[in-house]
Amino acid sequence: MAMVKNPRFHIVMYPWSAFGHMIPYLHLSNELAERGHSITFILPKKVQSQLQHLNLHPTLISFHSLTIPYVDGLPPGAETASDVPISLHHLLATAMDRTTDQVEAALRALKSDFLFYDTAYWAPLWHPN
């Protein structure tokens, strides 16, 4: 009896912009990549350099950068929850919600098999599956 090889999937990860979310997502990405799956990890631009060293499978895990738009009251350059006090997290959430056009374009172009997300309630609207 012939062994059936496990299918390989393309998975998109889109965690909340906080290291307590992004790091576990990257650990999961490493586990999935170890099994041969390809991962696209959507994250703010400046975060890529901060997480790159945790990417154990750079040939299977690629980073797709987002530009975080300006929101009145959000400090310039703020991209993660650690960039702002907790009292301003609602502004970061607003900024992340304003990335919908970027995320939509990425999801349409990537044509992934799965999308993992946590707080972007709108992300599945554009996932092709």
Automatic annotation (TrEMBL):
The keyword Transferase applies. Keywords: Transferase. Residues 11-110 form the Glycosyltransferase N-terminal domain. Pfam families: Glyco_transf_N (PF26168). One of its GO terms (molecular function) is UDP-glucosyltransferase activity. InterPro entries: Glyco_transf_N, UDP-glycosyltransf_plant. Belongs to the UDP-glycosyltransferase family. PANTHER family: GLYCOSYLTRANSFERASE, UDP-GLYCOSYLTRANSFERASE 79B7-RELATED. This is UDP-glycosyltransferase 79B9. It comes from Vitis vinifera (Grape).
